[in-house]
């Protein structure tokens, strides 16, 4: 079983709001607006770490601007110690999934049998952990929906608003058809919101595993209009009004995009087209578009498209692809994972890349891997083309693979 990539999650949780009005700010206000990136690593055998990195101050690691700098790997520093938070077994295990919603980092611990994990992981079955980056509070709920208890059952997690997370799985059983078809679960941080229904009638029934916290999971999964067993979710994006999200699915003999309304609780097939991203398409208010890594994995370009109407069925708007390639290309090095993180502000992003020496096997321990952070701005130029501007390296760190 291949290990989870060490850069399991990266997010800007408290991004400054976009502001079109130019104003002079005091030094104190500028310092307050400093941007940070939260990076989750599982580069330790029995622990996961959350690091809070200052990407405006040079990153703290020696900068590697080109292939020649990779030869000086031994001069790279590791991430600052101690991390913001270290989670050790049995609280988490190597295949725990990390995501974000609002100001919180959410960890979902999957099921492991005794055959695979031994005694020290027995208590980690079905844990949901929530770390609030604003209050530094860590909440542990010993529950995970049944459809998410399998090692590979987690498919996608889509944050809608600051309070709800929609988690899709491939482990939910359809009792009527007698087979596994996959489903969708809803996770909420507090019970003081509604699902957006015009009638203010909650679409989900909730189960609160621990009375000491208001954290809840939906009591029953919602059925999906596509098969997550044979299909794969290629991309997803949330409408800026927060009432609809879109999912592009590629199956063996079919592909298409579906939308889910949190108001009606219904899925709608939008057409046979696909969102142009791989993974998350971020809504950029400055551009009025969704922006993400282009779906061609090895391309290293960004793509953008105007937001699709939440109600009208129509084809995907025109897609813009940047001319610039943002991935670093270094002979002898392979890219294991890349993630684009929206930093807010004036269309600011951070590209997080995980690199390891070519030829490294999944089972091989490696102490010479690199976490590379690149900050950039994305704009439409005078011709309406997507352009990467203000492209600069924020830092490189030496990390390990276990």
The CATH topology is given as Methylamine Dehydrogenase, Chain H
The Rg value, from CA coordinates, equals: 21 Å
- String of helices and strands: EHEEEEEHEEEEEEEEEEEEEEEEEEEEEE
| Second-tier CATH architecture | 7 Propeller
Q: What is the CATH level 1 assignment?
A: Mainly Beta
Q: Tell me the total number of β-strands.
A: 28
Mean pLDDT: 79
Sequence of strands across the biggest β-sheet:
20-19-18-17-21-22-23-24
Which structural category fits the helices and strands? mainly beta
Low-confidence stretches: 1-8, 14-25, 27-32, 59-65, 113-124
State which percent range the strand residues make up. 35-45%
- Secondary structure tally, helices: 2
- The separation of the N and C termini measures 13 Å
The main sheet comes to: 8 strands, mixed
| 3D shape | globular
Residue share in helices? under 10%
Number of domains: 1
What does the model show?
There is one protein chain. By secondary structure, the chain is mostly beta strands. It has one domain: Methylamine Dehydrogenase, Chain H, CATH 2.130.10. It is built from 2 helices and 28 strands. It has helices at 27-32, 114-117, and strands at 7-11, 36-44, 47-54, 85-88, 97-101, 104-108, 128-132, 138-141, 154-160, 164-169, 173-174, 179-180, 183-188, 206-207, 216-218, 222-223, 232-238, 244-250, 255-261, 267-271, 279-284, 289-293, 302-306, 319-321, 333-344, 348-357, 366-380, 386-401. The strands form 6 sheets. It has an 8-stranded mixed β-sheet, with no helix packed on it. Strands 9, 10, 13, 14, 15 and 16 form a 6-stranded antiparallel β-sheet that branches. Strand 17 (232-238) and strand 18 (244-250) form a beta hairpin.
